[in-house]
Here is the input.
Amino acid sequence: MPASGRVCRFISISTLALLGCASVLAQRTQLRPGWNLFSPQQDMQVGKQAATDAERKLPMCNSRKADAYLTQLGKRLTDHLNTNGVPYPWEFHCVNDRSINAFALPGGYVFVNRGAIEAADNEAELAAVMAHELSHVALRHGTNQATKAQAAQAGVGIFGAIFGGSTGGALLTQLGSFTAGGVLLKYSRSAETQADVMGTQVLYDSGYDPRAMSQFFEKLEQETKGKNPPEFFSDHPSPDHRVERVNEEIDKLGGIPANARRDSADFESVKREVMKLPVLKKGVPRADAAGGGSAGGPPQVPSDKTVDYEGSGMSLKYPDNWKQFGSDENGAAFGPEGGLVNDGSGHTALAYGVTIGSVMGQGTNGNELGSATQGLISELQKSNPNMKITREAQSVKLNDKPALSTYLVNDSPGGGKETDWIVTVARPDGMMYFVCTSPQGEFETYRKACGAVLDSVRFH
Ligand SMILES: [Zn+2]
Here is the structure.
């Protein structure tokens, strides 16, 4: 027994000895999530949206064996991860991309590229990458970054802060887009050190050789010196003294365990499996992700049948063949399958459907509605320079509340022009807006569908 065992025998004798015991045992570095305006529940919400988007856009391995293996390995690690009691849903997916990368979205949605599996020489190395990612989730680094971005943009709702920082996100909606969520995935060097340290603890506690944490990343850096660094390092900048810091933590944990696990037959078998997968060219979108006007023809005509949506302080009905692309307390978007298209600059834009958002603190009563609507439109025009008003604001009613209806023309993300019909309504916390979007040629169809959505709105 090490010294700590002796100290512990005094537990029953005095409180002082108990404290002594605790401090001897608790030598490992204690890490806690930083400042965060989001709740862990919001981490899960935002992460789930972005994960759904990632699954649509990324080429997935579609290998049950690989996904099951990652899930099993991930579970072994999360069993030893301190989440401060938050029950993250943990999902693990294999991505058919040969670049060496892995990422974890807030709330526990983990994506591992086949390239990372192929680059790992043993299971401990793959476990190290995953333990590092899981630590970013537990330490809530993604929404901590978003919190800082939010602080820098006072007045913009949480939604805006994450998804682009401007209400321009309404049309070029970046709802739940994992690429636009860059703020969620780009970590600081200090966050990297934290993820290394916590990841080392997780490896140790799960019975893996904890040295794999620094070894794998060092190996990647060495092997790719002078060449393009692995993608992993663009989101996870290498912290200073990585090896030293990991070794220091291993010492604190009591040294390298004698029977540390390095490899498994499962790992070797899954590695062979992913190496056999067809190699997909990077950046080729899956057919359904391209969707909409740019490929595969226009989406299905909106259905007359509806489903209910319950938002914050309001409810509405939308066509039952539309999908909900995301939502939070400040907004949501709905549209047909294929309604989200890539605008060619890496942003996902809603080409067909309805976007709902709010401008907090403005347009809180009918008198302010006109100026708040003008402000919203100027804001949208900043990110959509070809957007022009085609019909000036007219007074309408939305669920018996005074509202304004404005029509605009804009470039459609799928090519050609689109019509945007914006309806704004004063709410006590801030003006709420509904944007109905479709390519010009199909607007009559969508005007009807959007009109039905607007008629169904109930504030409560
Ligand atoms: Zn990292």
User: Anything to note?
Assistant: The CA atoms of residues 149 and 161 lie 6 Å apart. The first strand starts at residue 91 and ends at 95.
